[in-house]
Amino acid sequence: MMVSSLGIMPFALCSSAFSYSNLVTHGLSQVILEDLRHPAGRFSSTDIGRVLIPPQEIFTPILDYLEDCLSQFNEFGGSVLEIAVLPVGPVDVEILEHICKVLQKAFPESTSLLLRRSMPLPSEAYNASRDQYDSSILLSKILPFKSEADKMLGVTEADLYVPSMNFVFGEAHHLWGVAIVSLRRLRPEFYGQTSDNSLFLERCAKEAVHEVGHILSLSHCDDPQCVMFFSNSIRDTDGKGLSFCKRCYGEVLRILKSPRSVYSSDSR
Asked: Is residue 241's pLDDT more than 60?
């Protein structure tokens, strides 16, 4: 599912094993393209023109955008991984957009999508005695939003915990294909330090990639430079890199190239 830079959704591509069977132009019509596919199973701009001939002055930008997106799908055979980023409670949109860009670069042949709607923080996840939110409960609340993409990453300003730990930077459930990251302890101000937006965004990027790695069933890595290294404290997050080690990256490629994987749960 693709979203334009204007924040509208001019169309949706429904795929099954990388064959694109229909195209929906919102507010116009639904067109079945089953008989118009190339022998290779791909669309061309000629096919699009035979099906949709809208008023040029109104819909040319939409069709131009559509053709550009389809060219990307033809080049890669379609995105292997779709990741939607969901704000959970109020979150600065610039942070969310940064995370989207980082995820798309970190995972090959992936697309990331920032959802324009948000999920309110559910009161049943809040533990007043700890002044924290149970991340596992939040994951269950995020799950219904997963229809938007293959995988879903929630981002929240709330402090998170699991019962067995004082806090977590995030948690993932790869059977569900969802994860969540907390920004609370990634800010230098949390530790009484001077605000540093560059450092903060770097930490956000590392934790987001880490949790999506767990969604793909990657476990923690022993390499302290690998993004999948376990962060017991913010020092661990600062010490590791944003990229995968050779072994973990090979595992990412293997998973993405294999049929739909069976995805479990992990937190740190």
From this structure: yes
Domain segments of the chain: what residues? 11-76, 81-267
Helices (H) and strands (E) counted in the chain, each on its own, are: 7, 12
Q: Which two tokens stand for residue 135?
A: 């991340």
Per-residue pLDDT reduced to its tens digit, 141-177: 999 988 878 899 999 999 999 998 999 999 999 899 9
46: its two tokens: 């000629």
What are the tens digits of pLDDT across the range 92-123?
999 999 999 999 999 998 999 999 899 999 99
Two tokens at 107? Answer: 């995972």
Nearest of 170, 192, 171, 194 to residue 183 by alpha carbon: 170
Rounded alpha-carbon distances, angstroms, from residue 92 to 88, 114, 157: 11, 12, 9
Annotated catalytic residues are: 211
What's this model's pTM, rounded to 2 decimal places? 0.69
What is the distance between the alpha carbons of residues 180 and 210, in angstroms, rounded to a whole number?
11
Supply the DSSP string of 93-153, one letter for each residue.
HHHHHHHHHHHHHHSTTEEEEE-SS-BPPPGGGEETTTTEEEHHHHHHHHGGGGGGSSEEE
Q: What is the assigned CATH class of domain 81-267?
A: alpha beta
